[in-house]
Specification:
Helix content: over 70%
Strand content: under 5%
Radius of gyration: 23 Å
Order of helices and strands: HHHHHHHHHHHHHHH
Structural class: mainly alpha
Length: 365
Amino acid sequence: MEDQVRSRSKEALRRTILLLSFMSMCIGFCGGPLITRLYFLHGGSRIWLAGFLQTCACPIILIPLLISYFSRRKSEGSSTKIIYMKISTSLACLIIGLFVGLINYLFSYGLGRLPVSTATLITTTQLVFTAVFAFLLVKQKFTPFSINAIILLTIGSVVLGLQGSKDRPEGESKKMYNLGFALTFLGAAVSGFVAPSIEFVYKKTGMGDGYTKVLETQIVISFSASIFSLIGMLANHDFKVIPREAREFQLGEAKYYGILVSSAFVWQFYLVGIVGVIFNGSSLLSGIIGAVLVPVSEVLAVIFYHEKFTAEKGVSLGLCIWGLVSHFYGETKHSQNTSQNQAFETSSGVSPQSKKEIEVISNVP
């Protein structure tokens, strides 16, 4: 009885953390690209700086970590661990962080050249790459519905690519627009590798449960990614240019620095959220949630930046929504079947597989 109560409590905590992670992803996924695009629209041009802002706010994670530590110390005493993360996990997260730094650069370049609506639609291809790498790294199982979703999202990306440069921002050359498109697609591919890699690290290192470990993982990954971007900024002489760029910024110097600070905080919501979803759900779920939020980003981009919503974008978005509905229907059906099988096994003491064998034997003349 106590084990059942403990198991239910653990599951309730996992779902609560998953919900909080989802909300955090929503804030970052929808707000991050909008703020970054605002920086580029009004005179910003430093790609490495925009990438750096996506992870540099990681020290703020120390606040909940300290709160967690002192809370545990009250019940556990002086033997309380300050850090849960193992050295092997830290090294793995440092390597993953370098890939995240690369992703930040690629996505920042895309947001500097493409409308937000186009860039976010391209990122839906991340789900395809996530599915492939999840299968290879963590043996993710697929249903006909999830396969259908992947195919539809792939077709949607192809349709989006067929629009050429119809929504090319004014003053942007076709060459730079196409380069931004290609690098954003590459960023989605690398991101599709990173999410399953984080899940793989969780499973192989036995990190267990608890949001403290999620935050520890995130701060190491963000630190590594920030160092990657910082090296790029130094090589590109960004620190010399930033003061001049701030003075020439179309919205004013004060708003320039305000945009940089707000961008850093909003992007951190996304990163903490996605790691939490992977930790308490799966890498495939994180890709699905990102795709779910695409329509929201589309609407926000049209409202705030009056971006063109071309026919190709409409078809791509429709295919995206169709794929997501297909996937969620399949997941719901799978969950119902699993619950029914578990209920049958509990009540009869016979596994579903044994039931099938009995039925086959009983039908033999």
